[in-house]
Amino acid sequence: MIIGKNFFIIEIPKTGTSFLRNYFKKYKNISLTTHHDTVEHNPKLNLLKKKYRISIIRSPYSWYLSFWKWSCIKKNMSPLYKDITSQRLKIKRLKFNSNIFNYIASQITKDTKELKKLFSDVNSKKNFNKVLEILLNKKFKSLISSDFSFMQEERLGYMTHYFFYQNVLRKHYNILFKSNLNFNQTIKELDSKIFTNYHFKTERLTKDLKNFLKKCGLKETKTANIDRNKSFKQKNQNIIKFFTKKNLALIENKESYIFKKFKYKKLSKN
Description:
By secondary structure, the chain is an alpha/beta fold. The chain contains 14 helices and 5 strands. It has 2 domains: 2-57 and 197-231, no CATH class; 60-193 and 241-269, no CATH class. It has a 5-stranded mixed sheet with strand order 3-1-2-4-5, with helices on both faces. The longest helix has 15 residues, at 60-74.
């Protein structure tokens, strides 16, 4: 996390947080905790009392593609890579899973060698779409070695899961693993528990950062380059070509909360 006098920024992977960390480390009175840290790992800081509680969000399309490409390069440094390729029995979550034996069997028998090949070529559309299929198709859910496998609501996507993991307290996050709520009830309940009150968008990160600096009375540093997003739109111009139509529809369905809340356009509708 990035922590200032009257604000903190929580970090969802592949939303521009490395840029922000490099920028804010130039300030003397701003501290950096472990990358992608959570509020509850720092209880003594009283973070929820700060005026600006900031999160960063990104278009689901570019988030998935960027996360996968980064995972192809970083391998075990990436939580996505580990979620797909590792064998993990999260015993404390088994009680929430309605199909415990299927999960255990999938974890024990998963072909990690073949799954690692899906991260061998950063330009492979075939590999990327296979990873998307594992993440978004419920029949492959038990292959994923993380809390995401245990979510009772199957219409919530991997990105939405990440968003709630970072933006609500753990006692509320656990709603995802209860079977007595339907989709609308789950979304409504979790949305009401979000503790962040200010959101940057990766697509306009430079603009959002500059506006925030003015709002909270911080001067732009001369030693860091704040103008960094010129290439972002260029990278996203042809992003739709990387996705199969089936996976494009799956993302728009599973990440419907992100699309609606943050007013992202659905590419398949254009």
